[in-house]
Write a structure and sequence with these properties.
- With 151 residues, this protein is mainly beta.
- The chain has three helices and ten strands; from the N terminus they run αββββββββαββα.
- The chain has one domain (2-146).
- It has helices at 2-12, 104-107, 140-146, and strands at 23-27, 30-34, 40-46, 52-57, 70-72, 76-82, 87-95, 98-102, 108-112, 129-136.
- A hairpin with a 2-residue loop joins strand 1 (23-27) and strand 2 (30-34).
- The radius of gyration is 15 Å and the shape is globular.
C-alpha cells in the first residue's frame, strides 16, 4: 500500500518554487507550511495502519488552535488550503494513556497539490481551511475538483 500511495501521490505533487508557492516542509516532527504568497493546497496522506490526529500549533496565540484539528484514518488523505503562513501542524496517535505526539515525517506523506489558482465554483479561496478530509488517495483529485478547485 505504501508504494501504491507514493506512486499515485507522485502524480499530484510538483516541485514548486519557494518564491511563488508554499514551502511545505517537515521539521522537528511537525509539518510546516510557509512562504505562502497566494492560496495554496497541501495534501497530507497517512501511510500507517493507525489513525493520525493533526493539530494546528499556534505559538503566538494557543487559543486559535481550536477547530484546526483533523482526524486522518489509516491510508487516507486530507487536503488543506492555506492563505497565510506560517502554518504548523503536529501529529498524534491514540494510545492507552491518551493522545501521544508522533513524528509527522514517519507517518505522513506531505506535499503541495498542483492548482492553477482558478475556481470552477464560488467556493471561497480566502482563509485557511480543510478542503477535504479523510478521503482515499484515489479520490483526491475528484473531491478537490468537486469542491471547485480547477486542478
Amino acid at each position: 500500500m505504501k508504494l501504491r500511495m507514493k506512486t499515485i501521490l507522485f502524480g499530484f505533487f510538483v516541485i514548486l518554487s519557494a518564491a511563488a508557492y508554499a514551502d511545505v516542509t517537515q521539521e522537528s516532527g511537525q509539518v510546516l507550511i510557509q512562504h505562502v504568497s497566494a492560496p495554496e493546497l497541501s495534501v497530507f496522506c497517512n501511510q500507517t495502519s493507525a489513525t493520525v490526529f493533526m493539530q494546528r500549533v499556534a505559538f503566538d496565540n494557543p487559543g486559535v488552535q481550536a477547530g484546526w484539528s483533523s482526524e486522518l484514518p489509516a491510508h487516507c488523505c486530507s487536503v488543506f488550503l492555506a492563505d497565510k503562513s506560517p502554518f504548523v501542524f503536529s501529529c498524534s496517535e491514540q494510545s492507552s494513556s491518551g493522545l501521544s505526539l508522533i513524528d509527522c515525517k514517519k507517518d505522513l506523506l506531505v506535499g503541495p497539490l498542483t492548482w492553477n489558482g482558478k475556481m470552477l465554483t464560488q467556493e471561497p479561496t480566502s482563509g485557511s481551511y480543510w478542503v477535504a478530509e479523510a478521503i482515499s488517495v484515489d479520490d483526491v483529485p475528484l473531491v478537490v475538483r468537486h469542491k471547485g478547485f480547477d486542478l
